[in-house]
Amino acid sequence: MRYFKILIVFSIILSCKKVKVSKVDLSTQTSEINLLISDVNKTGNIDSYELLKGYLYLNGDYPTLLVVSKNMFEKYNYSNAAYEVYYSYFKIKNNDSITENEINEAIEYLIKASKNGYERAKLQLENYNSKGLYVEKNNNTYVLKKKK
């Protein structure tokens, strides 16, 4: 019930179009966040994951989002989480200091999200392909671009 109330409040906040979003002081909500992390890791609860993701986005805690999202995808095959792995890599590294191996892993998760039907991932792959970045199309599926 507690998660449901938090989810409703969070949904209302996100549904407002002109809301100024600022960082959330997670130190006062540590126990709730730990409960969400535990629920996500143990059960794969999608509502808990989405609520946790919202908290982590608001606070800019992409390293935690990366770990939780990897687990959510690998253990529970939630394609949205695969996209968040991709997104977190680039947010953590600010696109400047990301290594080639990290780019490759991020793009692999983007490809996995696309293969699992996540539309946003498909659009991002199409965008990269049209710019000649990271991926190439091979038999109607995207693969990592081979080094030349």
List keywords for this structure.
148 residues; mainly alpha; two-stranded antiparallel sheet; globular
Question: How are the secondary structure elements laid out?
Answer:
Blueprint: H1 2-15, H2 30-43, H3 46-59, H4 62-76, H5 79-93, H6 100-115, H7 119-131, E1 135-138, E2 141-144
Antiparallel strand pairs: 1-2
Helix pairs in contact: 1-3, 2-3, 3-4, 4-5, 5-6, 6-7
Structural class estimated from helices and strands: mainly alpha
- The strands making up the biggest β-sheet line up spatially as 1-2
Number of helices: 7
Main sheet attributes: strand count, strand direction, barrel closure: 2 strands, antiparallel
Distance between the termini: 55 Å
Average pLDDT metric:
83
Could you characterize the architecture of this molecule?
This protein has 148 residues and is mainly alpha-helical. The protein contains seven helices and two strands; from the N terminus they run H-H-H-H-H-H-H-E-E. It has a two-stranded antiparallel ribbon. Helix 1 (2-15) packs across helix 3. The protein is globular and about 50 Å long. The N and C termini lie far apart (55 Å).
